[in-house]
Design a protein that fits this description.
The complex is a heterodimer of chains A (182) and B (390). Chain A has 182 residues and is mostly helical. Chain A contains 8 helices and no strands. Chain A is globular. The mean pLDDT of chain A is 86. Chain B has 390 residues and is an alpha+beta fold. In chain B, the strands form 2 sheets. Chain B has a 5-stranded mixed beta barrel with strand order 1-2-3-5-4. Chain B folds into 4 domains: 46 residues; 56 residues; 102 residues, Nucleic acid-binding proteins (OB fold (Dihydrolipoamide Acetyltransferase, E2P)), CATH 2.40.50; 150 residues, Copper binding periplasmic protein CusF (OB fold (Dihydrolipoamide Acetyltransferase, E2P)). Chain B is rod-shaped and about 145 Å long. The chains are: A mainly alpha (182), B alpha+beta (390).
């Protein structure tokens, strides 16, 4: 969407125009959903949070706030905040996972088992990163954004993003090793 | 060094994204390959964690939820719009009423000094009608009517003083009849052959309503004089300004600030046997004694003669009294009986007449207050007590 179109879209959202709302949703929902799913590794929670991001967009615009331009950056930034809040609440009220011996692994093919194990290790290692490191990895490798796009969303300069992704990858690689050795 | 490493990482990531082989990419940075390899392998791993595409079910559910919420917000917005205009209308109405009241108040204030023939005079009379309309107690209504009659006298007095010629209507007591020159509540009235008079003779002291024309020589030329019914509201004895001027000449005491208005009522036909009193119509008033000098007292600015009065109680300047009497042929009010009203500050041990006791109780409330309470002091006392006494 061009900048001009985005301004028109914002006007339509402010007027609660159903067609505009539907168009904006169709354009950005999958990106927001995938970002949240990457950050949390949970499809159900990702669905709820991604939907909530768009509701918040409408509410913000009705209250005279919300984005003045760069709608996608606002949506991703809001999603990041909601994810952070979610993780904070989850940290305060941890939910114990089922003991591994109760999981039925016998009927799972070995390839699938390995894939699941790798995913678990990755998510565990990823969860140990800082929020900023998680964010840059989600945008670069989950969303496939360029360095410049990522810098725009994170509101950082390109060099800062280069340094951040370097440290994030280094930390993730270290964490995966640690998780695998546990 | 770090920047070189960051740049090498970024370039390698871009190359991998373009589909190049990991070893081929690392071959470009042989001195950094050892550091870059695990990071690039981790990045490839991270890319695989993106997950599958968003299912259409998830997308549809989210869309429905969002549009539902938008519909709710639209409805809430419409409700808000409905509420705001309602308040706006109320505020506008209140504002208009406020402006109307303020402008009306200003108009009424401006009209208060108007005289018959002035442009604002109808406003003044209309406002008097409005005030009367909103007085529900009979006593208060009587007092207000009497005050308005007083206002008519004051207006005529001013018209005469200014030498303006205008049609007037007023009520008053005939206090003097000498040839064609009558004195009606202090207003000199010329009665001529052209004046329409009732069939019966109008005696001195009779309550009348005069329709006439003010003349430049300070006299009202009567066009018609009608006798009033017993109990009709009448103004005080004379115009206010005339009373004040008389007070300035006649007594040394200043006029009281809390003026009690004398509010006589048109007398009812007398039934008593006293021949002396039958010759005159008797009136009863209440008021504050302002001056006591020989046989001439000033009560509420009115000069009265007490030479023939039956004085009951220790009456002094400042006493609140009830008195009754009649107008002699010279227009002087001759007091036949005067007594302290109950509750008067100086009335220690005063005795009141038995016939008026009940009425006095009613008037006590009035005597302790000022103009507001004068309503009933004037309204009820004159006619009813005269009737009882005679």
């Amino acid at each position: 969407m061009q900048n001009f179109d985005e301004l028109k879209a914002l006007d339509g959202l402010r007027n609660l125009d159903s067609q505009i709302i539907g168009a904006v949703y169709d354009k950005y929902f999958s990106e927001i959903y995938r970002y949240v799913r990457y950050r949390l590794g949970d499809e159900h929670i990702a669905e709820d949070i991604a939907s909530d991001v768009f509701v918040r967009l409408l509410e913000a615009l009705q209250n005279g706030r919300g984005p003045q331009s760069n709608l996608k950056a606002w949506l991703l930034s809001t999603a990041a905040h909601i994810v952070t809040d979610h993780l904070r609440r989850a940290y305060r009220r941890p939910v114990e996972s089922l003991p591994e011996n109760l999981l039925d692994t016998a009927s799972v093919p070995s390839d699938e088992f390995d894939r699941r194990e790798q995913t678990r290790e990755f998510q565990q290692a990823y969860a140990q990163l800082t929020s900023e490191q998680q964010n840059v990895l989600a945008l670069r490798f989950g969303q496939g954004y360029s360095l410049e796009e990522t810098a725009s969303v994170l509101k950082k300069n390109v060099n800062a993003v280069k340094a951040l992704q370097f440290r994030a990858l280094a930390a993730l690689q270290r964490n995966i090793g640690e998780v695998a050795n546990e | 060094m770090n920047n070189k490493l960051y740049d090498a990482l970024e370039n390698s990531l871009s190359a991998l994204e373009e589909g190049q082989d990991l070893d081929a990419v690392l071959a470009r940075y042989p001195d950094l390959a050892k550091q870059l390899r695990p990071m690039l392998e981790t990045s490839l791993h991270a890319r695989t964690m993106g997950g599958a595409a968003v299912s259409s079910d998830i997308q549809r559910r989210g869309r429905s939820r969002l549009l539902q919420r938008a519909a709710e917000m639209r409805e809430a917005k419409r409700s808000k719009r409905r509420v705001i205009p309602m308040f706006s209308r109320m505020a506008l109405t209140l504002g208009l009423v406020g402006v109307l009241v303020l402008s009306s108040t200003g108009l009424v204030n401006a009209s208060s000094g108007s005289l018959p023939g002035d442009q604002l005079y109808p406003v003044k009379r209309t406002w008097e009608g409005v005030r009367l309309f909103f007085v529900f107690s009979p006593g208060g209504r009587d007092l207000l009517e009497s005050q308005f009659e007083q206002e008519r006298l004051d207006e005529i007095d001013e018209l005469l003083a200014k030498g303006r010629s205008i049609s007037v209507v007023f009520s008053g007591l005939v206090t003097r009849q000498q040839d064609g020159q009558w004195l009606i509540s202090g207003i000199p009235v010329q009665v001529s052959a052209a004046t329409r008079l009732p069939a019966q003779v109008i005696p001195s002291g009779a309550p009348v309503m005069v329709t006439g024309l003010t003349r430049e020589d300070g006299i009202v030329e009567a066009q018609e004089i009608q006798l009033l019914q017993a109990g009709a509201s009448l103004p005080p004895l004379e115009p206010s300004e005339r009373n004040n001027s008389e007070g300035e000449h006649g007594d040394s005491n200043p006029a009281p600030t809390s003026q009690v208005i004398l509010t006589p009522r048109a007398p009812v036909p007398e039934t008593g046997s006293n021949q002396n009193e039958q010759e005159h119509h008797s009136y009863e008033f209440s008021g504050v004694v302002q001056s006591v000098q020989d046989g001439i007292w000033v009560i509420n600015g009115q000069t009265v003669s007490v030479n023939q009065a039956d004085i009951k109680g220790n009456i002094a300047v400042g006493s609140y009294v009830k008195f009754e009497g009649y107008y002699d042929v010279n227009g002087i009010f001759v007091v036949t009986r005067i007594e302290l009203k109950s509750g008067s500050g100086t009335s220690k041990g005063d005795n009141t007449s038995g016939s008026g006791a009940g009425e006095n109780e009613n008037n006590n409330d009035n005597s302790n207050t000022n103009s507001n309470s004068n309503e009933s002091s004037g309204s009820g006392s004159g006619s009813s007590s005269s009737e009882d006494d005679h």
